[in-house]
Design brief:
about 525 residues; alpha/beta; Aldehyde Dehydrogenase, Chain A, domain 1; Aldehyde Dehydrogenase, Chain A, domain 2; seven-stranded mixed β-sheet; 19 helices; 20 strands
Length: about 525
């Protein structure tokens, strides 16, 4: 099963760590008084100690919000073009300094280097898009008023103030920074609470933003666990952006609802790929490998269900299993690995529990299913199951690991039913030679993004288009117009000229109503909207 990169007898991984002075420089940027204590992290690559983080308590978070709020008032007066220029300089810095960022992403998340590069590319894409498009998204727009010509109505997009971002561990660079970029260019300040397992990476990204010209006070970082640090951000921000589990997302939504502040939530998924009867298996097999096992399956939009048409299942399955067995497991800070490590012991135990439960209830392991301590303490094999039923936990629960179940389906309709038979609705994939047919199938799937002849990257990388979940997979969208306007308050300013919208002097109410009735009919007749 799966080649291992590096010889465990001679591998120097046990000595891998971030330079202590680098850790001190990064954590010095975080807001913490010392009252919250410290939190120690380890690298999943080897289990070795990685960093000691200063934990921000509720008072520290309140102070960070206050500093950010003061900076935001000045930042909102900066022309959009100047704010956008910061993002474009950040774009260049991320690409130039990617080696350091890739090391940090791997050390904190455990993922293979190629999958760490996806985060660098994502940051560059988001920075370029909002750097080039923010002015258009935020530009004031005129709308038809009550009386054409006599009523002038303009819509403005005002920044909300301080945006609180609570980001997860699985994409420590991308999800800490790409949601912040549109918030900042829209004129807001940001208070970020990255997951402890991704804190160094997030701080390194913020460091580059400040080097790109962002005022330092405008982007505050507070470190610590969900309670008290993350909760304190949710309790105080003017808008909340949260990425994480559905269970936690419901709590964030409740807090935001009580406070009457906006929130966007990207939550869990149980995503399906459909391999149709006419799919090109030369493309579908490697596409499925990428979609199921990128970042060791610790990706909210990764595929955990493979619906394969019965006409091609006997050809697809052996090729897919062979490709999975050829994957190279790696915990090296080098290129070449096909899959890295899970993030921690809890993720490994959840993965193994799902495999053991499925096997005990009759599922068959076609390949994988084991831990690989010879590669790393939290490394497991990419795993393919068949015969998964509703009685098994992995059928409907999100594993968030390298586990996929193959389901044989006799028709497109059955594939769509399987894809929709879940409380989640985040991502899906359809493989067919007939792209028009693929789009028709995609339109029937209840998911925020559906990729045709790709697993997840085509929709995710289309930054101008919205990305997010339906059903229990979340509320709101990132990317595109929705991804920046959610960080603004729409304000309508309407000015009336010459006559008011009321009876003229000495005109009766009835006469006013008759006159306005005639005018309204005329407006409709000439096609006014």
């Amino acid at each position: 099963m799966a080649d291992v990169i590096a010889d465990p007898e001679t591998d120097p991984r046990a000595t891998w760590a971030v330079d202590p002075s680098r850790v001190r420089d990064l954590t010095a940027r975080a807001v913490a008084s010392g009252a919250g204590g410290e939190l120690r992290t380890q690298t999943p690559l080897t289990g070795a100690p990685l960093a000691v983080l200063p934990v921000a308590d509720a008072r520290d978070v309140a102070g960070a919000v206050q500093v950010a709020s003061r900076a935001q008032r000045a930042w909102a007066r900066v022309p959009v073009a100047e704010r956008a220029a910061v993002l474009l300089r950040f774009h260049d810095l991320v690409l130039e300094r990617q080696s350091d960022l890739l090391d940090l992403v791997q050390l904190e998340s455990g993922k293979a280097r190629l999958h760490a590069f996806e985060e660098v590319a994502d940051c560059a894409l988001a920075a370029r898009h909002y750097g080039r498009s923010a002015a258009g998204y935020l530009r004031e727009s005129r709308h038809l008023g009550v009386y054409p010509v006599l009523t002038r109505t303009v819509e403005h997009h005002r920044p909300r103030g301080v945006v609180g971002i609570v980001s997860p561990w699985n994409y420590p660079l991308s999800l800490a920074l790409t949601d912040a970029l549109p918030a900042l260019v829209a004129g807001n300040a940001v208070v970020l609470r990255p997951d402890p397992q991704g804190s160094l990476t997030a701080l390194a990204g913020v460091e580059l933003l400040i080097e790109a010209g962002l005022p330092a006070d405008l982007f505050q970082v507070v470190l610590g666990p969900g309670e008290p640090t993350g909760q304190a951000v949710v309790d105080r921000a003017d808008y909340v952006c949260f990425t994480g589990s559905t269970a936690t997302g419901r709590k964030v939504a409740q807090t935001a609802g009580r406070r009457l502040v906006g929130a966007s939530l990207e939550l869990g998924g149980k995503n399906t790929m459909y391999v149709a009867a006419d799919a090109d298996l030369r493309r579908a097999v490697p596409g499925a490998v990428r979609a199921c096992f990128s970042s060791a399956g610790q990706l909210c939009i990764s595929i955990e269900r493979l619906a394969v048409h019965t006409d091609v299942v006997d050809a697809f399955v052996p090729r897919f299993v062979e490709a999975v067995e050829a994957m190279r497991l790696s915990t090296e800070l080098h290129w070449g690995g096909d899959m890295g490590s899970l993030a921690n012991e809890a993720q490994k135990e959840r993965f193994l529990a799902h495999v053991e439960d499925a096997v005990a209830k009759g599922a068959r392991v076609l390949t994988g299913g084991r831990a690989r301590p010879d590669v790393g303490p939290f490394v497991v094999e990419p795993t393919v199951l068949e015969g998964v039923t509703a009685a098994m936990a992995c059928r409907d629960e999100e594993t968030f690991g390298p586990l996929v179940a193959i389901h044989r389906v006799p028709s497109d309709d059955d594939a769509v039913r399987l894809a929709n038979d879940t409380e989640y609705g985040l991502n899906a994939s359809v493989w067919t030679r007939d792209v028009r047919r693929g789009r028709d199938i995609a339109a029937r799937i209840e998911a925020g993004t559906v990729n045709v002849n790709e697993g997840y990257a085509s929709a995710w990388g289309s930054i101008a288009s919205p990305m997010g979940g339906m059903k229990a997979s979340g509320v709101g969208r990132r990317h595109g117009r929705e991804g920046i306007l959610k960080y603004t308050e729409s304000q309508t300013v309407s000015s009336q000229h010459l006559v008011g919208i009321s009876p003229l002097p000495r005109q009766s109410d009835e006469a006013f109503a008759r006159t306005l009735t005639v005018a309204l009919k005329a407006f409709k007749a000439v096609g006014l909207k």
